[in-house]
Amino acid sequence: MAEEEKDDAFLDGAVDLFKAPDGFYPEEKQPTFAEHRMLSGDTVRVRLVGSHPLYGNMLWNAGRMSSDYLEQNAERLVKNRDVLEIGAAAGVPSIIAAVRGARTVVMTDYHDADLVENMRYNANQAAPLIPADSHLHVAGYKWGADTEEIMSFLPTTTESGDATTGFDTLIMADVVYSYWEHPNLIKTMQMTMKRTADAVALVIFTPYQPWLLPKTQMFFPLAEESGFVVTKVFEKVIDKVLFENDPGDELLRRTVFGYEIRWAPASL
């Protein structure tokens, strides 16, 4: 193209100087899918976002272990109870809770459009497995923020006719590694967990960065200082690490820790 023709094309808008050439930027990663096989034999298939800074593109070991634990203890932790998942990502534990007969399940993660839409997709795909009297909801939620929306999904009364004042079971899988968010997580627990002796927060995590484990574990004394009782319920070593090339103690990176947290008697 001659110089005069280039100038004319620019003036006519035919040449967009601000448009990147084809292939200049890497292609956006497409969503992938993962499966979780329930202990009952059913399979839950979920979509993972293609790429995300909050790790919604992973199906974490703690999420799988939380799902198994909920299924194993469904009569105690799930059946006819109101359940809230905090930091759900793909939402497998929420789906398992709904499948196993929870009265209400609210699946939440950070109010990012991609994460929330992906959770809603997974909830809709799981609908055929969920009993008609179990209600699964999806919402965006920032830890420590106002809980009006997520509390609005609760039924107005319990089976005994008493007013509903919170969730019976909280699911918190692989969230406490965000040690800087511990005060906000505690605040969310205080605002959403029903003040009854059998209300429980299930906290399960793997130290993917083992050198940060002491900071991660500071969540538990903070919870006790905030009116809760902490009970360690299991420590299990799984077969493989999730990230093979990561540094740090491999045994710790294969270990899943599980805790149940309840209100201290003085807090009831």
Question: Would you summarize the structure shown here?
Answer:
By secondary structure, the protein is of the alpha/beta class.
Please explain how this structure is put together.
It is a single chain. The chain is of the alpha/beta class and 268 residues long. It has a single domain, classed as Rossmann fold. It contains ten helices and nine strands. The chain has helices at residues 3-11, 61-72, 74-77, 92-99, 113-126, 148-151, 182-192, 213-217, 219-225, 250-253, and strands at 32-37, 43-48, 82-85, 104-109, 135-140, 169-173, 200-205, 228-237, 255-263. A seven-stranded mixed beta sheet has the order 5-4-3-6-7-9-8, with helices on both faces. The protein has a two-stranded antiparallel ribbon with strand order 1-2. Helix 2 (61-72) packs parallel to helix 4. It is globular.
Chain-wise SSE layout:
Elements: H1 3-11, E1 32-37, E2 43-48, H2 61-72, H3 74-77, E3 82-85, H4 92-99, E4 104-109, H5 113-126, E5 135-140, H6 148-151, E6 169-173, H7 182-192, E7 200-205, H8 213-217, H9 219-225, E8 228-237, H10 250-253, E9 255-263
Parallel strand pairs: 3-4, 3-6, 4-5, 6-7
Antiparallel strand pairs: 1-2, 7-9, 8-9
Helix pairs in contact: 2-4
Task: From the 3D structure, determine the CATH topology.
Answer: Rossmann fold
Strand order of the largest sheet: 5-4-3-6-7-9-8
Number of helices: 10
Radius of gyration from CA coordinates:
22 Å
Work out the number of β strands: 9
Characterize the main sheet. 7 strands, mixed
Look at the structure and give the CATH class: Alpha Beta
Give the proportion of residues in helices: 25-40%
What's the architecture, going by CATH? 3-Layer(aba) Sandwich
Overall mean pLDDT score?
89
Order of helices and strands: HEEHHEHEHEHEHEHHEHE
Q: Which band does the percent of strand residues land in?
A: 15-25%
Number of domains: 1
Distance between the termini: 80 Å
| CATH superfamily (homologous) name | Vaccinia Virus protein VP39
Overall morphology: globular
